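Hi W.,

Here's what went into the run:
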Amino acid sequence: MAKATKNKVNSQIASVHLTSKIWQTVVAMLGVTFGVSMYIFMNTFMNGVNSTQDDLAFSNLPHIRINNETDQNTYNPAIAMFGGNSLVNIRNRKSIQSENNIRNTAQVMSVLKHQKDISEMTPQLNVSVFFRSGAKKINGTVSGVEADTQDRMFGSAAKVIEGKWSELNYQKPSVILGFVLAQNLGVKVNDNVNILTSDGVSKNYTVAGLIETSVKDVDKSKAYMNIGTTRQLLGKNSDYSSDIMVNLVNRNETSRVKAALQPSLKYNIETWQDANQQLLAASQMRSIIAFAVSFTILLVAGFGIYNIMNMTINEKIREIAILKAMGFSGKDILSIFLMQASIIGLLGAVSGLILGVVLSTLINLVPFKIAGLTTLPIMYKTEDFVLAVLFGMLTTLLAGYLPARKASKIDPVAIIRG
Amino acid sequence: MNKPQERPKALEVSNLVKYFYDPSPFQVLKGVSFDVQKGEFLSIVGKSGSGKSTLLYVLSTMDTDYEGGVTINGQLLTGESQNRLSAFRNEHIGFVFQFHYLLPEFSALENVMIPAKRLGKMSSEEIEHNAYESLRLLDLEDQALKGANRLSGGQQQRVAIARALINKPSVIMGDEPTGNLDSKNSLAVQDIFRNLAHEFGQTIICVTHDNDFARNTDRTIEMQDGLIVNS
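Here's what came out:
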């Protein structure tokens, strides 16, 4: 009980100090409120932007892509024959066509199946072709895909605006065109389109559907076909593909998975970080900006609190002296003023949380109709709320600690004797 | 020196020496020794600069920068930690200064209750009851719930005295406790002090300029240039 009344008198004094000059307290608190709410707002907005960016990027970017592009032809038969010390001169040397493709798809996929970090994979056969309709000729790419796994990885079915993605399940001469490509060719669903490969093979396909991704370039130049149909177009066997797209359970684990796969595969393994460093850089820079802005606001709030606390202590210096004369220890005085700081911090943090959520919710209502978005993106994460409160409290306590320590060290004799 | 015979000593001071260093080194106390008996009403007089206030603040345990020894209630306080000294002051020493130093945002009653709450030896109800008793003793019962900053100067000073009494300290120290009071109030306070000393055995030590006040006490110590010249 003794300790209880003792602490109670400290908190009573602290609360009287806070309430007797309520405006000062409110101003000090508002600093923290703005800091915390800006922290929440900036971070939820940046999270929203980052996550939208990632969603857009990963709608056609796999976490890991396996292909055969490393095959730089360094084999020199003359050197192999005569050894490196011989002087060899071959004039007008010609290279033979090297295959930039995966010729043992089934084998590679069975190796991948043993990796438990992999959540999804799909083979693709990407070919540059000309699309022709009447006299119109547009160059672009055909992606031969396995309809099911492709849809699971990239959500392609949901992007088909006319016709059905499931048309690609079977090996039949149908194609799903990017909707801009279809417009440019002047074809509609169920019309025919002619496809011409670089080897001069030309074949007619029925337009089974139109697809709209959020990437204009894709919509303008890409078409999807069944992978078997595509192999047939190229005259290749059923183990032939150009890329194997792999998604991981956690997309940040790419480097570890790459290291695990590298020894057993002789192909090029490209992670999304390698392929799209700008994505990573942009999201990291946005995080830094968000942190810098909210940190600055909290810092300013901290100075405000420091000033107000200092003022209070200078005003109350005689009262502090008499409290010490009556037997309040330095620790009691410290706790009285730290209590004030932490109440300011706590109130500021809580009202900041509320204001932050309100701001974020309002921003989330602002229309923004670009790249498949309808409003500005916002994404709430628990850790942001925890960190915001933590930073807010920490700033206040730090800002309150210095004046409080000064108060606790006041020499009552010097004040009372004048 | 007036050595006590039978009664227990409330306070013993031996060979106090103290220097001020600012603005230039200066010896304020030059070896002061005396004892105070329990229940004695003592005044310390002297011209300004004689070291009487400095002596009081050393006795108060707030000023620890001195040489020599201070013992209160048989407990040697020289060299104790600040925290122990705070706790000791809270329980055993009451202060009355020339200025009241009340907390302006609190009522008279709350001001009186604060030291008891800090001590924390009684329940809030008992503390409130005792605070009313103290206020009644100083004829302030009807002002109890008024804000401290709305009382008159004399009332404020009497609240400060009530506050000094709340923990029933064994020693009450005053630095010109009646300096801001008119003669009627001053006399009332002197009566209260004498009563506390003689009825309740509380020891009172007051620094004063007021010769009437000093004449009213049991014993007067006169200081001059850092030494006791007459006691």
